[in-house]
Amino acid sequence: MAVVLIRLKLALMRRSFTGMRVLGLVLALPGVIATWYFTLFVPDPGIRSDLFALVFAVWAVGWALGPTVANGAGTLRSQYFALLPMDRRRTGALLLVTAFVDVGPALTLVAAAAPVWHGATLSAGAAVVAVPAALLLWISLISLSRLVFRALGAAMHSRLGVEIASVQWGLILALIFFGWMAVQPALAATLELREHGLGEGAAGAVLAALPTSWPVHAVDAAGAGAWGPALGWLAASALTALVLASVTAVLLAPRVGAHGVRRRGRPLGARPLSRPARGLLPDTPLGAVVGKELRQWWRDPWRGLEVRASLWAGLFIGLLSWWSGAFSFLAPFSGVICAFIMVLATANMYGHDGTALWQAVVGQGPGTARADVRGRQIAIWLLSAPVSLALSALFIVFTGEHWTWPYVSTGLAAVFGVGSGLSLLFSVVALSPGVDPQLRVDANDSGDNQVQVWLSLAALPVLTTPAVLAAVFLGLAGAPWAALPVGAANGLLGAWWLGRVAHRRLADRLPETFTRIRYGREVALRSVPERGSLLDRLERTAISGNEETRPQGS
Amino acid sequence: MVNDALPPPEDVPALELVGLTKTFNGTRAADGVTLSVPRGSLLGLVGPNGAGKTTSISMAVGLLRPDSGTARVLGVDMWSDPVAAKRLLGVLPDGLSLPERLTGGELLTYWGGLRGLGRDLVRERAEELLRVLELDGADRRGVLVAEYSTGMRKKIGLATALLHAPRVLVLDEPYEAVDPVSARVLTAILRRFTDGGGTVVVSSHVMALVERLADRVAIIARGRMLADGTLDEVRGPDTALEDTFVRLVGARGIGEEELSWLSS
Q1: Is the reported ipTM for this assembly greater than 0.85?
Q2: Which fold has domain B11-88+169-252?
């Protein structure tokens, strides 16, 4: 059975050699090189084992986060096998076995084999111990990866789970944002490490205590002739691998319950038709869209994850910069950064809704596309503006950096305006569908949006240039508050103009936009002219650049 | 309540498909599909799996732009005047997503609002539709569309198709996964609709159902329309529609020795 599944996986992989797998290779290959560089060129065995502790901890973090951060469904989805007359746990275990068959795991095995060389330099016995130790380490690393991935998927079925996943994502985003501050110290540390190892500090002790270091301890103990401790560490490693693999196998077992968040009672804001609430929103198509969008943002775990992760990221960035001391002046701008991240997170809204777009197509009235786009813009504002504002206000009060008020206000006005226009424009032009909403299981089943993210990262700063220039020069001139009207005008104009481009494009190409979601890449490419306008070229880039996930999840 | 567009002359068909053609990745899914549905009729569109039913329907209702050909709803061209054509049309697609995190009542309220029907009218109709389709209990409990069963999804989809009181209904596999009691309700709704002068197109691959329900039949296979007319015209000398279907589409029999292991 395992062989059959592995063959199936290899067949599917042959048909979908994706960009994400290439990216994985690009990241894993330097990891292998670095691991073996330390193994071969650090002469002192003590320093070498110190470094193994660090290196394998990094491998573990990479494997834990990599597949979740990357978009795209797992190659073999457990739902495919729900109907097999086989114990669900056994199916889970077999699926775990297939996770070891890929280029990434193969490279990881090469890296995990480094302790064998290390053992061989110590003694023949140590080399023998190192072989099972390396295999156990490998099993633990790959199992951990699937475990984290599926745990996030399982988390999508409870509100608390979604919140925990959002906190994790927020932290990841904040660390990515702050990563650049760590580059120089990390480079300096690498050179230092080669010479001196981790030293006696707390970091070294913590790393040495991690389960990823236990296989190396076993090799070291064997090298020193201490066979008792060697076998002890080996047994501990085996236990770790066993626990990780068993828990993962359980999580990989096909789920047979309902999709989405489990609830008790009526969802917030839902009233039966027989007891209508007084309508706060206008009785127009625009009001209808705003109402629907607010409910969907609040109740859909996949949408919720993106918005909440942006908010948590804003909070963590604020806290990190506040604690960093040198960058504490950045803390008041956490609201602006949060708004920026929210733009990146919401730039694939039509992809998110999947084939539900049919309603806008068959219900098309004279202003449907306009109402749909504007309604979504308003809903994002209503959801995110108060929180971002509160976040910035909080950090200004805490840090006492009251001079930032005018700059933060200008930044928020500009980023919110331009951002909401930009996210709708990308949602229309560069949409990429994920697994259709009613079939979603895993945390990253909503569509891939890497093209939108990269484009937004470039476009948002360019389009908010007037506000930035005004803030800088009017600030230097001693009249920072005078920049606020410029920021507001910049934002309003951006929201209006980009939104207009978006709804006109949508109105012109409603059936084509639906086709993009319903019939996939090949058919969609045929509907976009090869040498068309800027928007056509943008659409072609997104269609070819984003990962393809078919609505059925295959 | 019917839309207040100018009534077209009596002899204009309710729905016309004119030479609809679509090619996907080199495969011709619809090849010059032509069909005329007279007003007040209930037409069953039948065909084997992958015959081009859904592709043809999608092109007729404006979801998929045809490579060539067009469709007209009560004389209004779907591809040159989509807004006017879509106003006359109610559509139930098969297997597509909905705004999943709304309750049935919220979905209909949103849908009516998007179509600009006015809040009070929407509430009145939505309440009645939910009651008739037996979705009112789920609405009171706050069940989200994402939590609906397949049959319930069909029913709420039908409610969205009916809400704006269209003149022509196009329903893709409306009876699939619907329980027998609800199926009777659905049939009664469709009959009332045609009695009031409305026109219905229902796609299905269940011959007996179409024979019982429809007064007209169209048979499609391999992207081509093989026959269309009244039930008697299409059936001709055959006793059952299924025989006609098999004769036109071509059936593959099972030989004596094939699958013999099934009875072992």
Answers
A1: yes
A2: Rossmann fold (3.40.50)
